[in-house]
Amino acid sequence: MKEATGTVTAYVELAGQGAYGLALDGGGRRVSPMSQASPTAQSVAAAHHVQSQVVTNAQSLAASSNSQVLYTTHNLQRGVALTGDAQAIRGLAGHPDVVRISRIVPKERMNAISVVGTGALEAWRSTGATGQGVTIAVIDTGLDYTHADFGGPGTKAAYDKAKSSPTMPAGSYDPQKVVGGYDLVGDAYNGYNAPAPDSNPMDCSESGHGTHVAGTAAGYGVGADGKTFRGEYSKLSSADVQRLHIGPGSAPEARLMPLRIFGCSGSSSMTGQALDRALDPNNDGDFSDGANIVNLSLGSDYSTVDDPENTMLQRLIDKGVLAVVAAGNAQANLSQGDVYSIMGAPANNPRR
Question: What are the UniProt keywords, alphabetically (predicted)?
Answer without folding.
Answer: Hydrolase, Protease, Serine protease
